[in-house]
Amino acid sequence: xxxxxxxxxxxxxxxxxGLLAVSGLACDSQRPHEGFLGAMERVNERFQRAxxxxxxxxxxxxxxxxxxxxxxxxxxxSREFPVVPAGWALAVKGLVARPLVLSxxxxxxxxxxxxxxxxxxxxxxxxxxxxxxxRLSEIARLAGADPRARYVEFRxxxxxxxxxxxxxxxxxxxxxxxxxxxxxxxxTEYGAPxxxxxxxxxxxxxxxxxxxxxxxxxxTGGYWExxxxxxxxxx
Amino acid sequence: xxxRPQPWIIRATHWANVVLLGTMAGSGLRILVAYPFLGPxxxxxxxxxxxxxxxxxxLQIGGWLAxxxxxxxxxxxxxxxxxxxxxxxxxxxGEWRRRLFFPRRDARNALExxxxxxxxxxxxxxxxxxxxxxxxxxxxxxxxxxxxxxLSGLAIYKPVxxxxxxxxxxxxxxxxxxxxxxxxxLALFTVxxxxxxxxxxxxFVDMTTGGRDRPEPEGSP
Lengths: 235, 221
What we know:
The complex is a heterodimer of chains A (about 240) and B (about 220).
Chain A: H1 3-25, H2 35-51, E1 90-94, E2 100-102, H3 104-108, E3 113-120, E4 126-135, H4 136-143, E5 151-156, E6 162-166, H5 167-170, E7 175-181, E8 184-185, E9 195-198, E10 210-216, H6 223-226
Parallel strand pairs in A: 1-10
Antiparallel strand pairs in A: 1-2, 3-4, 4-7, 5-6, 5-10, 7-8, 7-9
Chain B: E1 2-3, H1 8-33, H2 65-92, H3 96-99, H4 103-117, H5 133-157, H6 163-168, H7 172-199, H8 201-209, E2 214-215
Antiparallel strand pairs in B: 1-2
Helix pairs in contact in B: 1-2, 4-5, 5-7, 7-8
């Protein structure tokens, strides 16, 4: 190797090491919404929105695909499964013509949607159950949600667990407020009396023990999202 | 005909790939920690011997699940872009002729090389240019399975929005298994590759400096 080659090689190596150091600083695992990782999360959101087809349905699965109870984990934030507050009712608010307060009976009186689809958890596992409820698009129609509400926020009575979604995913025909599971009333561990369920998002976006749906013109965050998990999280 | 062993685009994409594939593998192994099982819940694949086993922490990147997912989905684009630059150059430059495996040209040489390396054959196989038949077979195998790594990754990233791809790969859980198995195959390749480079240090110099022009036979299949 000649001297000039060696110098060139060393220079290249130093430059590469410098570049790696800078990109390393820009990738902070504890603050994944910032720096290079955050910029790429926004790129990935655009990619996911471009792929998203509001009319594409996740395949409905046969009953024999149902997971055993033990094989469909139910997560919570509170130490114990939260107890339904007395006088519980769902509040629908935000950019709506008619704010609503709906009891489970009122929700059951609305057009019913049932679906058996695959559940995708952020951890990597999948499981199957059937869910009964009312489409969120039906609630949006009843409340007269403003088209300028490009986001929908969901709040719960599980230690303040919450999330927010893009309106396209929230109004997808397979996004429902579920009050039943596998033909039974929704069990406590799966979010009774009412939970968000959808075929087009990861599990942590589907708020259980739901109390409030707000149609909003601005994006907010969420329990896991604010702690660093991806906001869009479509599947 | 005489040519430098490693043109600069091949060297650049090769070393970039070391960093990018390493980052993808490290963050992927951290993601796997969240659920280190293959198969649908309750129906773990019996053929997978490492159910519940995690990679050593030193091989993991991203610190926690959310961090690792951000690393993985950020670097996936750079990894894929680098691979596409390599593939475009490989075909546009004609380099594929001396790198890819063509059975009629290379099968015999591949077999002779293996027999020679295993000390089962005394005389070394004839020199056939930059790579011997076994190298061509191995590198071609890597290039053949690499797209599967990206496609299976897309299938488990977007199983609902890419339903045909996901179904083609056997559904969400099977595609996830493919994703890990291709990584395991590439890891095995990397170990053998590094051992071979240690045994033949000139290949390392070639891949770093480009090497000197060397005469070699016409390599067209």
